[in-house]
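Suppose you are handed only two things: the residues of a chain and a line of SMILES describing zinc ion. What would the bound structure be? This form records exactly that question and the answer produced for it, so the two can be stored side by side and reused later without any lookup.

QUESTION INPUTS
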Amino acid sequence: MLWLLLLFASLFTVVPSPRAEGRRNTTALTAKAAAARDRYAASAAAGGIRETIDGRYKKRYAEWKEEFLSTEIGRAQWDMYAHHPRLVLTITIAENNSQGAATGKYKWNESGELIAATIALGSQADQGYPSSVYYPVMNALEPFESRHLISGNVLAATKIAHEFGHVMKIAGTPEPLYHLQVQLVPLYNKIFLSNGYNVNDPRLVELAQKMGGNPVEIWEDREYWGEANAMLFLRDRVAKEKFHCRLFGKIKRAVEEYARNYEERFAEIAKSQGAIYSCSWR
Ligand SMILES: [Zn+2]
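ANSWER OUTPUT
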């Protein structure tokens, strides 16, 4: 619990956004220059996906992306962000989290709409299986790769889907709540570390109520939303594979063991139309 609280605290980083300064006085500009400026402003305001991939990683990234886009759900989600009217989704490769992936650098506009997010994929995202406790979907792939039934590219594409799940969830989270959590989590952790790890401390109970759960609950809820989207991707990806019920059986067992309180979101995907509908999720 303790390491989770500390880890969670480190996940919250706020990147201040320098506000573009509007210039109203156009009288000195020629009509042509004004038109060019307007075109620039329009393109700057529009959303879309910006892929900032270092040359060293372009080849492997192209393979991961191709794998993600080989599914209907992957294409639909990619298209949604590629043509998004406001949100700029940046995808980049991080070397300091080589087998992981992370999403952050969120920005909102004055109407409270999410306008920026960055997904940083580890440079070796096609390797490494996180624990089944918080990652029941990604973890379930491991035996299938070791038996050469899936490739590392499928794992990397599943990590992309997990991160897309984070973006979708945060887009539906009110900005004030997110900032409240950023503000209160360190305070919660500070009290938690000094009160003998007593989560029933009235101060902690009050903080948890304010921010919608204790830091671990907030964190695991987010991770399980990422995993639910990863499962949605795999539902399409392995639909035609003989082992698909075995894979989803493994996910089901991990969810039942570690994520009981969140089972519904996984069960919904299993029960929705698709190949795993015929596997016995229940
Ligand atoms: Zn995650």
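WHAT STANDS OUT: Residues 1-28 have pLDDT under 50 and may be disordered. The beta strands are 48-52, 88-94, 101-108, 114-122.
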